[in-house]
Design goal:
- The structure holds two protein chains of two kinds.
- In chain A, helix 4 crosses helix 5 and helix 4 crosses helix 10 (about 185-190).
- Chain A has helices at about 5-10, 15-35, 40-50, 55-65, 70-75, 80-85, 120, 130-135, 140-150, 185-190, 195-200, and strands at about 95-100, 105-110, 160-165, 170-175.
- By secondary structure, chain A is mostly helical.
- Chain A is globular.
- Helix content of chain A is about 45%, strand content about 10%.
- Chain B is of the alpha+beta class.
- Chain B has two domains: about 30-115, Nitrile hydratase, beta subunit (Cyclin A, domain 1); about 135-215, SH3 type barrels (Roll).
- Chain B contains eight helices and five strands, in the order H-H-H-H-H-H-E-E-H-E-H-E-E.
- The radius of gyration of chain B is 20 Å and the shape is globular.
- Classes of the chains: A mainly alpha, B alpha+beta.
- At the A-B interface, helix 1, helix 2, helix 3, helix 8 and helix 9 of A face helix 1, helix 2, helix 3, helix 4 and helix 5 of B.
Chain lengths: ~210, ~220
């Protein structure tokens, strides 16, 4: 039962990080030189994921759902259409599904088979989301994993674990924190964290916090 | 195929370790890798399902050892060679050989960025009716095929309830294993934790998967 033996035959293929970096660069150069891929287009993709798309988009959608019951109802019915019908938000892909946390039910999202994640609304997933510990454990022992994230749910809370096994993508609508009644939509958006939209955290209560900063 | 990618429910991996203030990319090449991957998908020689299956075939030791983008890089290069997008010589010299003709009739340019940013639509129109409705109790099949499937092994031969019908979608198993889209109705199925993990599991946990109709039968 030694993994080392299994691995021996693969020495030629298994490369160090530097080798892989070189090979990726070589592949890009080949495709660019053959006119199949434009280098500027690759640059634009990097720029998009580094600077344009990210959890701030999801956060604005969540804040809107908190202040507008109509928007929330539509979001829960068809998140893609509702977001795309609203000029305030960038276009998102098909079959985005919003799921709402309540006092009784907590939702958390995973992709056990690979790394499916709602990129167009949350940006690229964090490394932990794609890691073996998260993918293996959250489906079976969610309360313990959530506790490691600092989320200590009551034993009475029902936990729903959504495994993204198809081309559907899930967005958690976290509970609106207590004490934010006077907050504007923009102030609310600033409170919404990436992890709260994956379901591995909640947003702390703002009680006692001066909303004027 | 039953390889290490199908991680749901395995034990022994230790705690989840979130990284404080995590950067979008941990090295410059990871960004280039991502941009290249999105660009190549546009060329149409292979799609995401085929790319996922290529990762499922990675040796389990490597799968766990490699970072996410290393897995992508190894898989992308192997697939590019396999599908004839590049030759080993081109890759070695990092320069295109114009005598090597690629069976691709489009290029990825700045005009096509939307395709890289917005996920494709995998739903297909249909005259057929879904076999199951919300509230139906269904049994997942014991699918153990050598190729690609999106039914995780933790959810094989388990009783669950249909909670949503998501439309008729391209069937990844058929895309990879047979080279056809063969669209199928897609359902969200909810299982009680104990059905999957035994009686000792937390009674308040419920697992959900998206399951294509061929994964299901009436109990």
């Amino acid at each position: 039962m030694s993994g080392f033996h299994h691995h021996d035959h693969k020495h030629e293929n298994s490369s160090s990080l530097t080798d892989i970096e070189t090979r990726v660069k070589a592949l890009e150069s080949v495709l660019v030189s053959k006119g199949l891929v434009e280098r500027e287009a690759i640059n634009a993709i990097i720029e998009h994921f580094e600077n344009k798309v990210g959890p701030h988009i999801g956060a604005r959608v969540i804040a809107r759902a908190w202040v507008s019951p109509d928007f929330k109802r539509l979001l829960l019915a068809d998140a893609t259409k509702t977001i795309n019908d609203d000029a305030d938000f960038p276009e998102v892909g098909q079959h985005l599904i919003a799921i709402e946390n309540t006092d009784e039910i907590h939702n958390v999202v995973v992709c056990t088979l690979c790394s499916c994640y709602p990129w167009d609304i949350l940006g690229l997933p964090p490394v932990w989301y794609k890691s073996a510990p998260y993918r293996s454990r959250i489906v079976r022992n969610p309360r313990a994993v959530l506790k490691e994230f600092g989320l200590d749910l009551s034993d009475d809370n029902k936990i729903r674990i959504w495994d993204s096994t198809a081309e559907t993508r899930y967005l958690v609508i976290p509970r609106r924190p207590i004490g934010t009644e006077s907050y504007s939509e923009g102030e609310l958006a600033n409170l919404v964290t990436r992890d709260s939209m994956i379901g591995t955290s909640e947003i702390p209560s703002a009680r006692g916090v001066d909303s004027n900063g | 195929m039953d390889n290490i990618h199908d991680l749901g429910g395995m034990e022994g991996f230790g705690p989840v370790l979130p990284e404080f203030d995590e950067p979008t990319f941990h090295a410059e090449w990871e960004g280039r890798m991502l941009g290249l991957q999105r660009s190549i998908l546009f060329l149409g020689l292979w799609n995401l399902d085929i790319f996922r299956y290529a990762q499922e075939k990675i040796h389990p030791t490597d799968y766990l050892k490699w970072s996410y983008y290393e897995r992508w890089a190894h898989t992308m290069i192997a697939t590019a060679l396999e599908k004839g997008l590049v030759t080993p010589e081109e890759l070695k010299y990092g320069a295109g050989d114009n005598s090597h003709l690629v069976n691709v009739n489009r290029a990825f340019t700045s005009k096509h960025l939307r395709a890289a940013f917005v996920r494709g639509n995998f739903e297909r129109n249909s005259d057929s009716e879904p076999l199951y409705s919300i509230g139906d109790v269904v049994m997942t099949r014991n699918i153990q095929i050598p190729g690609h499937t999106r039914l995780p092994r933790y959810a094989r031969e388990k009783l669950g309830t249909v909670i949503a019908v998501r439309g008729r979608h391209v069937f990844p198993d058929a895309v990879v294993n047979e080279g056809v889209e063969d669209p199928q109705w897609l359902y969200t199925i909810e299982f009680q934790g104990a059905e999957l993990w035994g009686d000792s599991v937390d009674p308040m946990i419920f697992n959900l998967i998206d399951a294509f109709e061929p994964y299901l039968e009436r109990p």
